[in-house]
Amino acid sequence: MPATLIDYRISQPSSAAAAGVLPSGVTLPAPIGSTNLGLADLGIYLSAGPENRVDLNLYVAIANPLSLRGTSLFFSFYRDGQSIWFSQVGVNPNSFPVAFHFHAGDFNVPAGFHVYSGQISNGGPGEANVLGPITFSAAAYSLT
After folding, report:
1. Which end of the chain has fewer CB atoms at under 10 Å, N or C?
2. What is the mean predicted confidence (pLDDT) over 115-131?
3. Segments of 15-128 assigned E as strands
């Protein structure tokens, strides 16, 4: 099925290790706690029309992952404050920093302006920090 690009946005609160400020005003490196930490957010506009799809991509580097050995990190995508995608990642790194890259699709999104965010939380007793770089992008397509 052909697709037409409607909108594209990229948010890069950090383009280097230990440099940048997250949407909540937290500077990097930022500790990963048991509650969601917003990594990046962006806005996408979708016009009324045919079915659509928003492709989301998140790349983030984590420091101190050795203390997380055997535990989990939780990554999620939100649209307008509602969770639309979630992944639990077991952490068993042999070195650090370690980078994660996630891709997800959001289908048949209502027309209008929507705010997407990428978030992370720590599911165990270990300690780790978001180090950077962080890149979050979204591409909206109409499916014709």
Report:
1. N
2. 87
3. 30-31, 37-46, 52-63, 71-79, 82-91, 98-107, 112-122
Which string of b and e fits 77-98 if b means at least 16 CB within 10 Å? bbbeeeebbeeebebeeeeebb
Rounded Cα gap, residues 88 and 1, in angstroms: 31
Q: How confident is the model at residue 143 (pLDDT cuts 50, 70, 90)?
A: confident
Q: How confident is the model at residue 114 (pLDDT cuts 50, 70, 90)?
A: very high
pLDDT at 26 over 60: yes
What token pair was written down for 102?
A: 């996630």
Token digits for 42? 């962006």
Question: CB within 8 A of 13, min separation 6: which ones?
Answer: 20, 21, 22, 23, 28, 39, 40, 132, 134
Task: Give the whole-angstrom CA distance, residue 5 versus residue 133.
Answer: 26
Classify residue 18 as left (phi > 0), alpha (psi -120 to 50) or beta. Answer: left
